[in-house]
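Entry for the shared binder. Reason: the reviewer on the internal report wants the predicted structure included alongside the sequence.
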Amino acid sequence: MKKLLATFTLALAGCFCLPAYASTINIDLNSVYTGATPTGPAPWLQAEFAYNLGDKFGTLTLTSKLSGSDFVQGGKNVNAATGWAFYLDPLLQSAACTGGTNCADQVFIQSYLNSGPTGLGDYNLGFTWSKNGPGGRFAAGDTAIYKLMFADPLSASPFVANGAGFLSTAHIQGIGEAGDSAWITDGGSTPNDVPEPSQLSVLLVGLFALGLMLYARRRAAVASRV
C-alpha cells in the first residue's frame, strides 16, 4: 500500500509540472495560386506553431519539403516580394531564430507586406532568403525555428486567415529545368490544431489507473483467503 501511495504522489506531482494546456498548429502549403507547379508531392512547405494558452510566446518551425532545384526566395526589403509570409492576429512583437539549418536573412513584422498576387499583400509576418544574403535560399530539407513573442497572453491560435482567406503564402523559384516560379498558399484550409492533455485529464487518468491497481490487489487478497 505504501508503494501505491508513493506512486500516486509522484504521478500527482508530475501532473502539476505539466503545462496547463498545449496546442500545435500545422499549416501546409499545398496549393498553387499562380505559376508552375513545384516539383514533387504537396505539401511543399510546412509550418508548425507550438504554444501554451496564456503564454506570450510560442515556437514556429518552418520546414521545406521542396524537391529538386526548387527553393524559397524573396527580396531584401519590405517593398520586394516576401519569400514566405503569414497572417497573425495579434501582431507580433518579435521573432528570433533559435535553431534549424537555415534561418531567414530578414524577418519583416508590419501590417502590410508585398506577397505578390496572393491576398493583395495582406500579411504581417514575412521571412525572406535573399540572393545576396547569407542564406540565399530556403531549399529542400531546410528548417528554421523561431521564438515568436506577443504583447498579450494567447487565448487562441494567432495564425488566422487574411482578407483573401489564406493563412500563409510563399514564393517558389527554380522549378524544373526552365527555372519557373510560383506563388503557393495553404489553399484556404483551417489549420490542424492538436491539443495535448491538460493537467486535469492527466490527473484523471492517473486516478483511474490507481483505482484499477487497488481493485486488483483487493481481489488478489480475497482470493488468497479462499
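Summary line for the report: The CA atoms of residues 8 and 207 lie 8 Å apart.
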